[in-house]
Automatic annotation (TrEMBL):
InterPro entries: AcTrfase_PglD-like, Hexapep, Hexapep_transf_CS, PglD_N, Trans_hexapeptide_repeat, Trimer_LpxA-like_sf
Name of the protein in question: Acetyltransferase
Organism, as annotated: Algoriphagus taiwanensis
Family: Belongs to the transferase hexapeptide repeat family.
Coiled coil stretches, renumbered: none
């Protein structure tokens, strides 16, 4: 299996893979830095040629970065090279029996996923985040640690919801929106803006 990225996010991802016993033939991809091993143990490859050769033996890859745009770029590049995206599920995650879409998203440790939620392809729900009933999240959106999305919230694609931010019930957030850490979003938010503060205001 290949992890697309070898930065800070990959450290936490690796701990989940170790706990799941999914480290056989594990390699990491890093085209920026020249290191040869990750965490002193796992090989790092650096070129698309190496990626393609790896996929001929094992086509599965995981997104090892948190940034929504970079996650999407890796997804497009690696699927074009023959890869197949898989997701990870951390320990202590509370899943409703009535959630959907989470099978295509990375859900890190100690998250809550409520009833009738829909989570898009390539999303990252990071440690301790809460996704409450009837929340809808588009593709490749990042929900950072401790963020809380309350009932019937709608979040578009390619958004980043900051650590410990709270989105109040029924609020709708467009695409490519950044919500600052600790912000409280009380009203609908258009696409392609940054919102910060309590209550949240558009910069």
């Amino acid at each position: 299996m290949l992890v697309a990225g070898a930065g800070g996010h990959a450290f936490e991802l690796l701990d989940i893979l170790i706990s799941e016993g999914k480290t056989e033939n594990l390699v990491f991809f890093d085209e920026i830095n020249s290191g040869q091993v990750f965490q002193d143990r796992y090989p790092i490859i650096h070129s698309e040629e190496e990626v393609k050769a790896h996929f001929e033996k094992d086509p599965f890859f995981i997104l090892g970065t948190g940034n929504p745009q970079v996650r999407h770029q890796f997804y497009k590049r690696f699927t074009a090279l023959g890869g197949k995206l898989i997701s990870v599920k951390g320990k202590g995650v509370a899943f409703s029996n009535f959630s959907s879409g989470a099978e295509e998203a990375d859900i890190f440790n100690l998250c809550f996923i409520g009833a009738n939620t829909q989570i898009g392809k390539g999303c990252l729900i990071n440690t301790g985040a809460q996704i409450h009933h009837e929340v809808q999240i588009g593709d490749f959106t990042e929900v950072n640690p401790g963020a809380v999305l309350l009932g019937k919230v709608q979040v578009g694609s390619f958004c980043s919801i900051g650590a410990n931010a709270t989105i109040l019930p029924k609020v709708k957030i467009g695409d490519h929106v950044v919500v600052g850490a600790g912000s409280v979003v009380t009203q609908d938010v258009p696409s392609e803006v940054t919102i910060v503060g309590v209550p949240g205001k558009i910069l």
